[in-house]
Design goal:
alpha+beta, Inhibitor of vertebrate lysozyme, Ivy, 147 residues, globular, disordered N terminus, single chain
């Protein structure tokens, strides 16, 4: 009986946490972490922001989403480090791409542009405008084509 109650509580807590993670609070640009503000000003000076959201993933962490008027989007962690950049009508600024990734894509796929890049603890995932997805290690060395 105790096990069933404990399991039920875990399910309810997980459902509440998931529902909470989907809720985003709209914020002003100046409420983003300073590092995120600086990155946007430096690499996206001509983009207009449609809206910015603050997501509380759980009790201990926040994430931020910035969506531009053209539909491009940048996700940031709580410290303002970008975790994902997805472009709609352009390529990801080359200044945000590791040299090894730029070199590999330029040599192997010279006619393609990087339209999305994700940065997590272990690796980078890059999506080209032909929908091919590539994985790179944290130093920018090609690992594999992702399926």
């Amino acid at each position: 009986m105790k096990t069933k109650i404990l399991m039920l509580l875990c399910v309810v807590f997980a459902a509440f946490s998931t529902a909470k993670a989907d809720d985003g609070k709209q914020i002003n640009f100046n409420e983003l972490p300073v590092k995120a503000q600086q990155m946007i000003k430096a690499h996206f000076p001509n983009q207009n922001i449609s809206y910015a959201l603050q997501d509380e993933e759980d009790l201990f962490s926040k994430e931020y989403d910035v969506v531009f008027t053209d539909g491009s989007k940048i996700d940031f962690d709580a410290k303002g480090n970008w975790t994902s950049i997805s472009m709609k009508n352009a390529s990801v600024p080359s200044s945000l791409i590791l040299p090894g990734i730029k070199a590999y894509v330029g040599q192997t796929y010279p006619n393609q542009q990087i339209v999305k890049i994700e940065n997590d603890r272990r690796d980078y995932e890059v999506k080209l405008d032909n929908n091919l997805e590539l994985k790179f290690d944290k130093k920018g060395k090609f690992m594999r084509i992702d399926r």
